[in-house]
Design a protein that fits this description.
Layout: E1 3-7, H1 13-26, E2 29-31, H2 46-58, E3 62-66, H3 72-83, E4 87-91, H4 99-104, E5 107-109, H5 112-119
Parallel strand pairs: 1-2, 1-3, 3-4, 4-5
Helix pairs in contact: 1-5
Length: 121
């Protein structure tokens, strides 16, 4: 079963919930880095957080990136995945995508359902 890393801002809980449902409907396994929830206590855990995220990305076939708002972590995850040859699909919720987002993504969609479907293209 293909696996997809759910990149997104730390407090994008609704995105993660809905993306998980849609990804499972597609027959993929979602990998949510927020299962290791460090919100509010990241200081001193940077190595653990980033190492865990990189290992998760390496274990996945693709990355679904929520770019509905600017987020450094999401940008770094998408860039890393792109550099590793992973398929990156960006979800923007209608926000105009940054040129770097367009560069690293094989597809950019304003609609989450369309973004998830693009994982399988």
């Amino acid at each position: 079963m293909p696996r997809v890393y759910l990149a997104g801002p730390p407090f994008a809980d609704e995105y993660r919930r809905r993306a998980t449902e849609l990804v499972r409907e597609l027959g993929w396994e979602p990998v949510d880095p927020m299962r290791r929830d460090f919100r509010g206590r990241t200081e001193g855990h940077e190595e653990e957080i980033v190492s865990g995220d990189l290992a998760d990305i390496d274990s996945c076939d693709a990355v679904l990136a929520d770019f509905s708002e600017p987020d450094e972590g999401t940008s770094m995850e998408a860039w890393y995945a792109h550099g590793r040859g992973k398929r990156v699909v960006a979800y923007t919720a209608g926000r105009t995508p940054h040129p770097w987002t367009v560069y690293v993504a094989v597809a950019v969609h304003a609609d989450l359902e369309q973004a998830v479907l693009a994982l399988g293209d």
